[in-house]
Amino acid sequence: MIKVAVLGAGINGLSCAVKIKEKYPLIDVVVIANDFSPNTTGDGSGGLWNPYLCGSTPQQLLCKWGVETYEYLHNLWLNDGCDISLLPMYELHRKEKDLPVHDWANREDANIIFMKIL
């Protein structure tokens, strides 16, 4: 039997473990972590999800993966009762910055909207 180890029991580790098991049900998935719920920081803290550029990863793949991750987390919020809260995020700066708007940031079909407020 094939075995896969996932390091970490936070939102990323557990989400990866679940997705691996869903796609490959015959694989034995083991989560390795120092602590598990309710003794993790994820049980009481907020987290920000935001795709970003990773080296020379093509923008098309970042957009695809970013939207898939967003839709997965959004679905957990809507349907699975996982105590996930979806809140708007505001990034504030003291001085105006010329921030890039990436392709993934304006996807109305995935309910992802980036807006610059002056």
UniProtKB/TrEMBL annotation:
Which GO terms of type biological process are on file? D-amino acid catabolic process
Gene3D superfamilies, alphabetically? NAD(P)-binding Rossmann-like Domain
Lineage: superkingdom? Eukaryota
Under the heading SUPFAM superfamilies, the entry gives:
Nucleotide-binding domain
| Residues of the FAD dependent oxidoreductase domain | 3-106
Report the locations given in the UniProt record: Peroxisome matrix
Principal localization reads other
One GO MF annotation is: D-amino-acid oxidase activity
Q: What is this protein called?
A: FAD dependent oxidoreductase domain-containing protein
The source organism is Euphydryas editha
